[in-house]
Amino acid sequence: MKSTPTNVSLDKIEALQHRTLRVVVASQVFGGTGLAVGVTVGGLLAKEMVGANSVAGLPSALFTLGSALTAFLVGQITQRHGRRLGLSLGFSAGALGATLVVIAAATNSVALLFPSLFLYGAGTATNLQTRYAGTDLASPHRRATAVSIAMVSTTLGAVAGPNLVDPMGTFAERFDIPTLAGPFILAAAAYAVAGLIVVTMLRPDPFLVAKAQRLMIESIQPGDEDPAGAARHGEASASRPLAYLGAAVMVLTQMTMVAIMTMTPVHMHDHGHGVNRVGLVIGFHIGAMYLPSLITGSLVDRIGRIPMALCAAAVMALAGVSAAVAAAESLPAITLALVLLGLGWNMGLISGTALVIDGTSPDDRPKFQGSADVAIALAGAGGGAMSGVVMSSTSYGSLSLIGGAISVGIIPGIWWYQTRHGNSSARAS
User: Fold this and answer.
1) Each residue of 135-167: pLDDT tens digit?
2) How far apart are CA 252 and CA 374, in angstroms?
3) What are phi and psi of 171, to 5 degrees?
4) Which residues contact 104 (CB under 8 A, 6 or more apart)?
5) What's the pLDDT score for residue 245?
């Protein structure tokens, strides 16, 4: 897997970047389909097999825990061997996990279901990690835009997935497989195709090329510490506090989003909404998570990472309030709240990702990216696990308000950074 050339000339970098983005787009379309399925029916499947509302949040917690381990491993593998190996292995693990979920449902094995959901989370983490591949060869002032291209391509699969719940359920019934397990058949196929695209087409490996270019520049200009010269070669000065801030933004928005999103299907189901309506709401939500990415990425590059992170906090707080006051019978009101939730997450992820990239260098970037995504996954796991408990002991409205309040934690985080470090990055300010 180390066949990537390390002597690619600088004049070919732009062409390689365009090719990389095309591969990322193709893989994300299929990866988005696999990702959306678990969000839509995972909680309902667990509730059906166990027979208790309190476990409805466990699937989200398990596949986010699985995604945490995968994010760490993908980061480590990428640092040593490049993006292609790490991403292809991650998607393959997700496909295996989805397959085992189907087997668990078909055999009514709760003992197999939960480990399978954990493994299924590998696909979720890999789908998220793929966004970094589009930034390896991007110039600093185009990094957020590169992230947005990767994310918006997820929209097709992410929106289609929930709306294929019914057809896949019907398909599963033909083979005496429970209806709610049907969508995981689609997830297994989608993740497998995404992995195949990465392993066959992501050549040359963008991270290995970027690393080689950095070494070449250092050998030509040893000891060059001129910031302008570094910027000309597409390398921003590393600022670890900036990277920590970016990770914090993504962690807080992830926790809020997962907590509210996980229990929305259960809340709707308990108030008489059918699977079709649940799929429609989740489809709009996931569309809002990814579809605005091109606009968000452009704004992050133009007006700054920190202003957009503040916007993310405001929109997610509004989403929490909207979900809390929405009438349980009102499909438009619930949809609006979930759209706002997705939009706020989109702003937080793109601005946070850009901050992480700005605050690291190729020497340690994949490792830090993996660690940041571990924190994101653990935050999501915590939000998912506690969401069922909070909703069972209080209400969906209380859960939504608590989730919205969590996202406001972005504001003191930004205040801390600016107080201690000022506007050390022009793109961050």
Assistant:
1) 998 888 889 999 998 888 877 777 677 677 778
2) 13
3) -60, -45
4) 110, 112, 113, 116, 181
5) 95
Pair of tokens at residue 216: 């070449």
Tokens of 29: 């379309």
Instruction: Encode burial over 237-267: b for 16+ CB neighbours within 10 A, e otherwise.
Output: ebbeebbbbbbbbbbbbbbbbbbbbbbbbbb
Q: Which letter, b or e, does each residue of 107-126 get, where b requires 16 or more Cβ atoms within 10 Å of its Cβ?
A: eeeeebbbebbbbbbbbbbb
Which tokens sit at 356? 């992480």
Sign of the C-alpha dihedral, residues 230, 231, 233, 239? positive
Q: What angle do CA 252, 258, 259 make, to 5 degrees?
A: 90
Centroid of chain to Cα 128: 4
d(CA 187, CA 180) in angstroms, rounded, equals: 12
Write down the pTM of the prediction: 0.78
Locus of tokens 């695209």? 197
Tell me how far apart the alpha carbons of residues 130 and 222 are, in angstroms, rounded to a whole number.
Answer: 32
The string of DSSP codes covering 143-204 is HHHHHHHHHHTHHHHHHHHHHTHHHHHHHHHTTT--GGGHHHHHHHHHHHHHHHHHHHH--S
**Residue 59 and residue 64: Cα distance in Å, rounded?**
8
What number of H helices and E strands is found in the chain? Answer: 18, 0
Question: What is the chain's alpha carbon radius of gyration, rounded to the nearest angstrom?
Answer: 21
* Structural domains present in the chain: 10-219+230-421 (1.20.1250.20)
Amino acid, single-letter form, for residue 76: Q
pLDDT computed for residue 4 by the predictor: 47
